[in-house]
Amino acid sequence: MDEQTNINTGNSTEKTIVEIDNKPVLPQKISKNTVEATLATPAYTHRITNFFGGNQKDALRFQASTLACINKNPKLAQCTPASFFDTLNKCAEFRLFPDGRTAALVPMGNSKLGKMECQFRLMAQGYIELFARNGILVSVVDVCENDEYDETNGVITHRIDRFAEYTGKRGTRYGFVVHAQFPDKRIKSEFISLKYIEKVKGISKNQTLWQNEWLEMAKKTCVRYLAKTLPQTSEIQWAIKADDEAGFDFNNRYIPKANPFGGRSETLDTGAENTED
């Protein structure tokens, strides 16, 4: 069995990455240098490029996003290599980037094993991209007190005064409106109150992610809420399952009730366990 050195990190404190039988040997610890070296091996480069349909530009962007993620969150260095690269593979399988907007690499402590493990989190833009591949255009917009908002017979009309937005005079944020436009131009919308989002945050298993990426997590909550009523491809169902396995489990009930604008809003069934990551 031959061993061939494919890349050297250029750092004497780091182990050289080798391939055995054309399979990369994972580093013993996570760092920017070891991850960069591992991703640069022919086997990993080939795998990631294949996931992105042979697009080398996207594969390079994926690698750059991974390294930027490590720089942004030093705790990832404490994760087991196996969990880290398994999470990376999951991102690549969905053709998404671990940039915190489409997908995120989240370090989570495993008390049973006494180790830090990397977990996959699908973010708002990731869901938006997955639905766009199926021709459904999803968007999320915040709703503030000085916006023009109306909800009549389930139809939401929401307009933002751009001058108020530029001058910072839109007022207090009450929540978000999430829209889905279908290929036949039909539109489905829901208002998600700020109170509801704070309830979701309150029962989250990962408060750090909410503290660091509140807006992204709020948008994700809105998209997942609407996703329950949208047509889903096998890819989207697979993504939701992966998200739930990571701790989302968004099986709460919808209960109409008055919102600040006189229409409907939503309540959270806190009886569901692990409702958010």
The oligomeric status of these chains comes to single chain
Task: Please provide the ordered H/E string of secondary-structure elements.
Answer: EEEHHHHEEHEEEHEEHHHH
Q: Largest beta sheet, briefly?
A: 3 strands, antiparallel
* Rg computed from alpha carbons, rounded to a whole number of angstroms: 21 Å
For the secondary structure, the number of strands is 10
| Largest sheet, spatial ordering of strands | 1-2-3
Beta content: 15-25%
| Structural class by sheet pairing and helices | alpha+beta
Report the average pLDDT across residues: 77
Looking at the structure, what is the overall shape? globular
- Terminal Cα separation, in Å? 43 Å
The number of distinct helices, counting runs of at least 4 residues, comes to 10
Stretches where pLDDT is under 50 for at least 5 consecutive residues are 1-22, 24-28, 251-265, 267-277
Q: Which range best describes the helical content: under 10%, 10-25%, 25-40%, 40-55%, 55-70% or over 70%?
A: 25-40%
